[in-house]
Amino acid sequence: MSDVIKNAREIIQNYDGPKIRIMEVCGTHTHEIFRLGIRSLLPENVELISGPGCPVCVTPVGYIDEAIYLALEKQCVITTFGDLIKVPGSKMSLAGARTEGADIRPVYSPDDAVELARDNPDLQVVFLAVGFETTTPSACLAVKKAQRLGLSNFSILTANKTMPNAYAKLKGSADAFLYPGHVNAITGNAVCKKLTEEGVSGVVAGFTANELMTALAVTIDNLKKGKPFFENCYPRVVKDEGNPAAQKLVDSVMEPCDTEWRGLGIIEKSGMKLRSEYADFDSRIKYNIPSMEGRSNPACRCPEVLQGHCKPTDCPMFGKACNPLHPVGACMVSDEGACAAYYHYGPSIGIEIDEEM
């Protein structure tokens, strides 16, 4: 055991103050904390809760309905990252649409979708642009490339989101946030520092055992002081200024807009849409997509999980009607989802999975 982990473990396990709640905003943090066995080290008065840091999980039902509309009604080829295919829409998932004849193709990057459109001028190719600040630059690059190539058969359906206003929306849900290191690597730390003026505390965390244990220890140590705080515990990657080139790229192609988050509702200026000069590549404009509200399964508690109001195990469908083979909610579908993490790693810390396949 390294000295870093030993010292962090001592701080964490010796905490004897009032109960504190720390929200892992990032889905990868949730999975890594489980995988590394960190939860088993926490005293009873330190609770980790999951937040809205899984891009697939916070994508609203209506967005899936829009994608299915494009696939079945407009005969578009839908290209997407694989974990979005099984997310339920109001009536079916993209996997269900595929069984009805829709052309749904998983890709590794938006650029793959651009190449598909270039190689197949007879196909109308739509890329499902879902993600936070980390993946938005690649969608912007794809649009700029498609424009440069003069492609008229490529567009993107945007569901890109930004985190700052979500943090503000979740104020009070936890005593402190573990901020996602890869997001801050793009955005920098200015927003998180400013949030301390509103009473929001948090620590930027990396993804190794040393980095996660250090971030938790620093969080607990600061919470004992009783004042809002921010610290960067991922300095090898996250700089105060972030990635100016990526910021400039996104700002040149997209602009902020109000957008819906599953579980959080409409959050002002927390989405990104294409600027007017790139309107030809906006699927909603190109295909005049009608407004779609989206209806989720009322028994699914994903919205509450994403707000930190309950744990996956509090949902009566968890591990029963809802499991990775037959997911009812987005949090069970994505590899970054909290429900998927509890399902895969829960038994290792005594969480029983009573499956009814």
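(the above was protein one; protein two follows)
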Amino acid sequence: MLPILARITLPETARRGDIVPVRVIVRHPMERGIDAAGLRPVPRKILHTMRVIYAGEEVFRLMLSPGIAANPYVEFSTVAIETGTMVFEWTEDGGAVYRREARLVVT
């Protein structure tokens, strides 16, 4: 797994059963395969999948397309079940997988 620059925002604590908002912005160029300025081909590098695992279950999955702008922003919600780590994974064309983690404390 490779590191990636991402800002993950979620509450520091939540009560069991609360709806928890999660906001993520990831720094990625989302190269579509053409240099628009000179219309020269460049290697395509697109994040095509984002998934989030929490409490051992996949709680969110997003399929991205070449039409998504650089530095994609995503917002979703999940239910606070237990204290634990949310694992965020992005898969890029060519198979590279990037990973970040954020902790949620449930009271």
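Reviewer note on protein two: Residues 6-32+43-106 form a domain with the Immunoglobulin-like fold (CATH 2.60.40.10).
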